[in-house]
Write a sequence for this structure.
């Protein structure tokens, strides 16, 4: 199952709305997916003692990490905050287990933002996942001026919709291709 990570803990975020759109596209193309929404995940329950140790699997964060570890692929829907990705997402990732959460895991990215559509946030995440030996899907989507294009859970821009559709369809193929050669987890 593909895990879609809504990459901010901001309530009622555009990232979550785009995550739901992507989830529907995966369904249309015959693939199951689940959304891990950082909003309400319980990151405030962490106190730093979990670094390098085992998370309580019954906690919301521990359960989310298990979902990541079992995922056939990860799709990050991430806004740009202050020239990078949100700190809440970094904090969540820092509690993942290595190599289980990262090694040979297919990952794809959707950036949200203003003029550059979350370009920097995606580039920074690519650095993290490249460092940890994940397989980075090359078809990234950058949704520029998202606050103008996203209304009531729908994107008004035809090109953006086309890019999201193509990414969902091809990410599924990417995951299958890696699995067919026993290259992914």
């Amino acid at each position: 199952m593909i895990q879609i990570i809504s990459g901010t803990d901001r309530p009622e975020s555009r990232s979550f709305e785009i995550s739901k759109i992507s989830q529907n596209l995966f369904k249309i193309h015959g693939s199951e997916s689940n959304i891990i929404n950082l909003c309400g995940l319980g990151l405030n329950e962490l106190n730093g003692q979990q670094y390098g140790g085992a998370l309580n699997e019954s906690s919301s964060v521990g359960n989310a990490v298990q979902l990541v570890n079992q995922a056939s692929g990860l799709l990050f829907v991430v806004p740009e905050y202050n020239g990078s990705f949100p700190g809440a997402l970094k904090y969540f990732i820092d509690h993942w287990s290595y190599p289980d959460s990262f090694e040979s895991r297919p990952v794809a990215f959707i950036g949200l933002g203003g003029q550059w559509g979350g370009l920097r946030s995606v580039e920074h995440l690519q650095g993290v996942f490249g460092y940890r030996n994940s397989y980075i899907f090359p078809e990234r989507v950058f949704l520029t001026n998202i606050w103008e294009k996203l209304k009531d859970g729908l994107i008004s821009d035809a090109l953006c919709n086309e890019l999201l559709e193509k990414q969902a369809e091809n990410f599924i193929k990417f995951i299958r291709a890696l699995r067919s050669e026993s290259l992914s987890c």
Observations:
- The CA atoms of residues 21 and 153 lie 8 Å apart.
- The two ends are 12 Å apart (CA to CA).
